[in-house]
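> example.struct
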């Protein structure tokens, strides 16, 4: 795109062209930032929007080297490369960088750039139009922060609903520790010379129970922790197993027979582990609650690799969902629970969508519901080599 408009003359050049008189007031009333540089990088055009954003007037920056004025030091080389490409004739282009204002603020600007061609066919100026993305970026960050807070509140709510089962689960190993320690104490009091091996065995059992309680508490702490939204490669089967262990606390006491079929192996998925485990816990707890009114309470949790995706599924033998509910299951505030608020599944869908996967529901062979989600593998699996042809 070749552009010929009038600009403020650089040193040693002629004045405005006739079209420049018409363009100048237009550039001053549009909301976008417009800045033009000569081929040496000096500012020759700086519209009203630029003045408002930076706090500098055009008279203050006219003919000044652009790269010394507004850019953070760490971004100068990147922007110089964009400028050099334009001067060399590689236009249009676009980029995003920060500007530092007179007041010390930093603003994030997205630019679309092109070249102004002189009468000799060479590039005389480069011109950029910019949009200040700072408010939009700040608003998006606020939305993300609110979503993260909602996810954490939901996790804490899940744990609150499990508090009785959690207390029982932690109390069991603590009671066992007390029994082992008391037994060892009695042995030492009654037969101090004969019981060393017996006492050591009891202490080993006590240590095992402490480790069991510690694992439960560690899992709770990790699950309740604030997610940092940073994603790392994780072994999907290990993530599913850890989340299932937490979600199934108290389930056996309700008559639930659970089966884990984890067949994805050591395959890695780039994920926010806390968020994905929140999805798994939500699906499992929903399944356990769905079977409260049926006699047969079978729960199957499985993982399997399908192409370049890993699929995790939770099957229950509950009553399933009516068609009218299935169609709206992932809408906010749609719930089949008498005391539910209907945000668990919509949040789960949001998490899986953000990870590049898909969450869906279907009826299963047990007569209940299956909720399954997919996630992309960190590294696509290599294509299997074709089998050799027979001789």
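> example.seq
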């Amino acid at each position: 795109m070749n552009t010929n408009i009038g600009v403020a003359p650089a040193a040693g050049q002629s004045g405005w062209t006739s079209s420049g008189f018409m363009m100048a007031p237009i550039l001053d009333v549009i909301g976008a930032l417009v800045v033009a540089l000569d081929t040496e990088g000096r500012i020759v055009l700086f519209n009203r929007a630029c003045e408002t954003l930076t706090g500098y007037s055009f008279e203050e920056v006219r003919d000044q080297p652009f790269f010394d004025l507004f850019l953070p030091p760490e971004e100068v080389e990147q922007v110089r490369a964009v400028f050099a490409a334009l001067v060399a004739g590689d236009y249009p282009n676009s980029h995003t960088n920060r500007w530092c204002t007179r007041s010390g603020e930093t603003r994030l600007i997205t630019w679309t750039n092109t070249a102004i061609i002189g009468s000799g066919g060479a590039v005389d100026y480069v011109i950029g139009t910019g949009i200040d993305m700072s408010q939009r970026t700040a608003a998006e960050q606020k939305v993300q922060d609110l979503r993260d807070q909602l996810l954490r509140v939901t996790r804490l709510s899940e744990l609150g609903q499990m508090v009785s089962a959690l207390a029982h689960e932690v109390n069991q190993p603590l009671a066992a520790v007390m029994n082992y320690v008391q037994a060892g104490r009695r042995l030492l009091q009654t037969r101090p010379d004969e019981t060393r091996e017996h006492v050591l065995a009891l202490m080993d059992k006590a240590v095992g129970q402490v480790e069991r309680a510690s694992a439960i508490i560690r899992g709770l702490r990790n699950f309740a922790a604030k997610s940092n939204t940073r994603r790392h490669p994780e072994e999907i089967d290990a993530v599913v197993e850890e989340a299932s262990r937490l979600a199934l606390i108290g389930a056996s006491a309700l008559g639930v027979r659970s089966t884990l079929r984890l067949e994805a192996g050591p395959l890695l998925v780039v994920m926010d582990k806390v968020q994905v485990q929140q999805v798994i816990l939500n699906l499992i707890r929903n399944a356990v609650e769905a079977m409260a009114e049926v006699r047969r309470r079978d729960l199957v949790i499985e993982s399997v690799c399908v192409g370049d995706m890993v699929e995790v599924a939770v099957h229950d033998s509950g009553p399933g969902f009516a068609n009218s509910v299935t169609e709206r299951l992932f809408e906010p505030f749609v719930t089949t629970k008498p005391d539910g608020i209907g945000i668990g599944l919509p949040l789960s869908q949001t998490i899986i969508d953000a990870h590049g996967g898909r969450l869906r529901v279907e009826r299963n062979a047990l007569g209940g519901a299956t909720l399954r989600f997919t996630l992309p593998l960190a590294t696509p699996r290599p294509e299997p080599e074709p089998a050799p042809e027979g001789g």
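> remarks
The chain has three domains: 2-132, 139-226, 228-380.
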